[in-house]
Structure formats: structure tokens, C-alpha cells
Amino acid sequence: MNPITQVQSLDVPSAIAQRRSIKSFKSDPISKELLHQLVELTVAAPSSYNIQDWRIVLVQDEAQKAALCAASWNQQQIIQAPVTFVFAADIYAGEKDLTPVFEQGLQTGAWNEGTVNYFKTAIPQFHGALGDKRREYAIKDAIIAATHLVLAAESLGLSTCFMNGWIEDKVKEVIGAADNPDLAIAVLVPVGYAASPRLDPGRLPFSYNVFVDKLGNPYQG
């Protein structure tokens, strides 16, 4: 029996409350259908002007996993998990050909011709004005998509781990982007079935880091 058929999907609040960062995974594969569902839910994430500037690579081949593990300080969760999502970001996506984005917006009825004509000028102007912050904005979009992935995975009985310990140039080599200076690596996310659970380490009271209107005015709930 496919593992997913044994799990009742969680609602979003339950997935958020239950999710933990898992560092060890079973070798059980993820079905093709479930993986497809995860990708669909991941790319449903919002992005600046809907330009969808993330570039997501699913690393599944054993040799590729070994290379990605080596590029990530030999963290074994990449070897153990059946798939690791590499979230990259196209730094200059907002200044490239966005015809497919515009055409899809028109086709769905979300945008009209006036909106598209405005975006054709506004998007490259906005992104060009970002200057050195282009990379930051693109990575933000990729991280939002990665958050969609981890919550979708949790809701469907899978576990994940955000990984920020890797060498960018080496990760880019693994995914075939060594010669692409316009691509930034945002985060790596192994996905699979947890080998063992982890307890919730807890969160600080709101008064430590949640405020109203200004820092120093703690939110009391």
C-alpha cells in the first residue's frame, strides 16, 4: 500500500503546529503522484508580480544526491531522503522575457490588457531600480515557495528539513548552473518519511520578539 493512503491530510494550522525539522529519513520512496502534488503545491506560492523567479531542481539520482551531499558539508539527510528540492532564484528574472507570465495571466482572466501593458514597463523598471537588492528579492520568492513545500509535505505525511549549510558554487555545479552568475541558491529541502520524530523545542513568549506598532511595545496576546 502506498504510504500516503494511510495518512489523512492535515489542515494548514495542524501542519504548522506539527511540523519539525527532521534530520534522518527512511529510504521509503515517494510515489510519483505524491511528488507531483508536492510540486504543484510548491509552485502555487506567490511571487513578486507573479514572475515565478524560482528555479527548483529535484535531486533524486543517487550520484547526484552524493554530489549534493558533498556540497553540503556531508549532511547525510540528503543521502537518506528520496528527494531533495534545491531552491534557486533567477536574480534578473524581472528584466527578462516575461511573455509566458503575461499570456497566462490573460488566459486565466486574472489580468486584462491594460494590466499587462502596465506590467511590461513597471516590472523591469522596478527590478532594475532594486540594484544590488535583486538577489535578495529573488531569494525571498524562492523561500516563500520552499515554505509552501514544507507545509504541504507535512500535511501529506512527509517530513522536511530546511538546509542552509552548503557551498553555493558547489551546489550550482551539481545542478548544472556553474556558469550562470544570474542564479542564486536560496535553500535546500530534503523530503521523505521521518526515521524518528523530534520534540518541539518550544518558542519564546510573544513579549520577547513580537511587538505592536514599535519595537519595545510587546504584544500581549
Word description of this protein:
This protein is α+β, with helices and mostly antiparallel strands and 221 residues long. It has helices spanning 12-18, 32-42, 62-70, 77-80, 99-108, 113-130, 134-155, 168-174, 206-209, and strands at residues 54-59, 83-90, 159-160, 183-192.
| Helix segment tally | 9
Radius of gyration: 19 Å
Extended strand count: 4
Largest sheet: 4 strands, antiparallel
Order of helices and strands: HHEHHEHHHEHEH
Tell me, rounded to a whole number, the average pLDDT: 95
The best one-word shape is globular
Query: In angstroms, what separates the terminal alpha carbons?
Result: 45 Å
In terms of per-residue confidence, which ranges show pLDDT below 50 for 5 or more consecutive residues? 1-6
Give the strand order, joined by hyphens, for the main sheet. 1-2-4-3
Classify the beta-strand content into a percent band: 5-15%
SS-derived structural category? alpha+beta
Helix content: 40-55%
List keywords for this structure.
221 residues, alpha+beta, 9 helices, 4 strands
Give the helix/strand layout.
Elements: H1 12-18, H2 32-42, E1 54-59, H3 62-70, H4 77-80, E2 83-90, H5 99-108, H6 113-130, H7 134-155, E3 159-160, H8 168-174, E4 183-192, H9 206-209
Antiparallel strand pairs: 1-2, 2-4, 3-4
